[in-house]
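assembly run, all chains below
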Amino acid sequence: MNGRSKHLPADERRAATVEAVVDLAAEQNPSDITTTAIAQRMGLTQGALFRHFPTKDAILQAVMSWVTERLLARVDKAIEEAASPAAALEAVFMTHIDFVSDHPGVPRMLFGELQRPGETLPKRMAQTLIRHYGERLHTLLDAGKARGELHADLDPEAAATLFIGTVQGLVMQSMLAGDVTRIRSDAPGVFAIYLRGVGASS
Amino acid sequence: MNGRSKHLPADERRAATVEAVVDLAAEQNPSDITTTAIAQRMGLTQGALFRHFPTKDAILQAVMSWVTERLLARVDKAIEEAASPAAALEAVFMTHIDFVSDHPGVPRMLFGELQRPGETLPKRMAQTLIRHYGERLHTLLDAGKARGELHADLDPEAAATLFIGTVQGLVMQSMLAGDVTRIRSDAPGVFAIYLRGVGASS
DNA sequence: AGATAGAAAGTAATAAATTACTTTCTTTTG
DNA sequence: CAAAAGAAAGTAATTTATTACTTTCTATCT
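ok done. output:
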């Protein structure tokens, strides 16, 4: 348990590996992350990684699991604590922005996984994550319409797509500027326009 | 000039190379496109590519040039022909959607280039392309506000970011569904919400 | 408690495949 | 025929994964 220990238990190493990948993804193209780079970041040799993961894809798989649990848990909590659907929408957005501000590599990884040809497991995990996210948005948007908080003629499908695009646009802008902090600082202004678009402007 | 010719002039091969890369980018992660894959798509051996380009980055550079010329030219034409800033905004959007529907690999390549560490030439070209695009949007949004077509308190910076995010969201949705045609079919609904957000709803 | 066997975790070296790029020689074309 | 374009083969560097061996941790037994 001390800081000088050279051998860590498997579950801690697995957690540290995920963390290393998420960190590296913030600095470079996720698909260019090598096992050597991951190991180096952890202070290990490259081969040691394969004591804990059978393959590189298994590492990415663990990362996708990590993202799914953390992001959806935070989002669900934000929804629960909100007083109304419109408030929940805003809380989910801010939660999401907080998450990608803390882990700017995550949206890049998701985008990258979706681009992979074929049917890899990490790709399917990225798909289901975004689908589940979309379903929560859909529910929220429907509820908002029912309560009269959102425009009666709002297309929930389109509104969910734009919601995700809003985050994606902020991520892109931050990459352009080379400044991750812009995600958080630009978020309120961009979301205000979205809110007006769906009819929830005060 | 006939179809049976085995040797093509350099400029035609360069154009064909760009086309091959754009096509491949629609099918896989752009950063995973190899020179072997490009050559194979063109019916050439891998080494033959280097008769026309000194390096792989030079190929990507040519692709970014191609994208810049085509996209900005179409966008500028759409702006010129529009009667008002709000109409121009919609025309630019539809032009952009047409472009990425025809070439779904392009937004992926731009996103991918932005992620590259260091200062490569193709990366800088991607940055300037998006910046120029953003400037045109900014001008349009300012003009729209001046004419009273858009909300007086609209933040043009945020509106430009959301505009690009709108496209990005549609691209992401199409990757999720594995169906490129959804970009075009979902575009009007998503853009309608954007329009309402900036205050240009009829 | 202290010694110790055995499992878990790590290293170093390396194999096998793939990558961007080169070189040499051949074919095509004006 | 000469120059451009391409094929075929090769090179050096990387990448994932494996192997043989070493170190560290931990549970058990006297």
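Residues 166 and 191 of chain A are 7 Å apart (CA to CA).

Chain A touches chain B through 47 residues (CB under 8 Å).

not gonna interpret more than that til we talk
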